Amino acid sequence: xxxxxxxxxxxxxxxxxxxxxxxxxxxxxxxxxxxxxxxxxxxxxxxxxxxxxxxxxxxxxxxxxxxxxxxxxxxxxxxxxxxxxxxxxxxxxxxxxxxxxxxxxxxxxxxxxxxxxxxxxxxxxxxxxxxxxxxxx
Length: 137
Fold this sequence. Notes:
elongated
């Protein structure tokens, strides 16, 4: 009597946080989404680069924009800055980011603050793709 063929056991899935948890921590702290996905090097690079970019924006006397529906560009700038949540909250609580319009570096500062948030949104989406399995580790 022939023996039945052996079947390979199903691979055990790695335990990783859900897409929602990954997205939330990635939004709050630059690089944290990659930390929870086990990509420490990427996380360190993203944390340093994005936090430094945000800090340079503040050092260049950029402005932390408030949400104002009456001014669409100010509203969009505020939304972009809030895409890097924890540094934005810390800077706001510390009284930073008042913006000095007369400073020669004012527009550079605004650009650094806005772009750091937009880049963090892309980094968070990358971490979410990792969590969902849409991207190889």
